[in-house]
Amino acid sequence: MSVIVSCAVTGAIHVPSLSPHLPVTPEQIAEQAIGAAEAGAAILHLHARDPETGQPTADPEVFERFVPHIAERTDAVINITTGGGHGMSLDERLAAARRFQPELCSLNMGSMNFGIFGMLDRIDTFQHPWEPEYLEMTRDYIFRNTFADIEQIVGELGSAGTRFEFECYDVGHLYNLAHFADRGVVEPPFFVQAIFGILGGQGPHPENLLHFKALADKLLGDDYVLSVLGAGRHQMPLATMSAILGGNVRVGLEDSVYLEKGRLASSNAEQVAKITRILGELSLQPATPAEARERLALNRRR
């Protein structure tokens, strides 16, 4: 079976001072998303940033400046975040998804400590005043996704036909997904994005991926599609392991700004090209957007 490659284009974790290649403006986000699709990504996971400062924003007017352009230039599945960025309210996080009603949205499956303050030690000079404050605040920050929040998101967006990338940062989040599945709040196939290496979530160890998959098999049976992302330097090893285990993969500058040790990725497309090359070495092929839509039971929307 082919492997679904997702690309998370810019995210809300990294600050511009970490890499000059992180897309910030709507034009850069569109260009890099289109390049990732041309390199083999079937799904494009999208956040927005303030064009002047690079700070994560939930403003749907900013999304408006790149989402339609990407939709016109690619056939890739457009996946709009509901996680937004640190410190955003639920209404802010949902603003873009409400505007565009995409075929796929990300959905974090639980509240958690979400520490990215460790990046402070990797930056000597900051480009913007907001950056050190943004990173430091996560030392005393809980990223909120309560049961009520999840029910609201699924009820509101799901009723419009949107399906979800269920982001699971720990096995407790997998149990939360099983809870909603048992209640019939969400319906299969479940697109499970297993996330490893975020401080506050499950560690990026191979045995953790094996445990996560075994537990998902137990809780969800044949009703789920597994995808894996590793944060930072764990991106490519864990993606490769996922493919070997029969799963799918996610790469992109949201998850790592590097291509390999000591070398910054020049673009999202460069990371997609690398993982598709690795898939080829494993005698696997990247899925087309049409194949991804079929496997995830998406309702194509433009």
Quick gist of this model?
Pfam families: BKACE (PF05853). With 302 residues, this protein is an alpha/beta fold.
Protein described:
This protein is an alpha/beta fold and 302 residues long. It has a single domain (5-296), classed as Aldolase class I (TIM Barrel, Alpha-Beta Barrel). It contains 11 helices and 14 strands. The strands form 4 sheets. The protein has an 8-stranded parallel barrel, surrounded by 8 helices. A two-stranded antiparallel ribbon has the order 3-4. It is globular, with a radius of gyration of 17 Å.
Q: Spatial order of the strands in the main sheet?
A: 1-2-5-6-9-10-11-12
> Which structural category fits the helices and strands?
alpha/beta
Please work out how many helical segments DSSP would assign: 11
| CATH class term | Alpha Beta
Question: What spatial form do the alpha-carbon principal axes imply?
Answer: globular
Provide mean pLDDT, rounded.
97
Q: How many β-strand runs?
A: 14
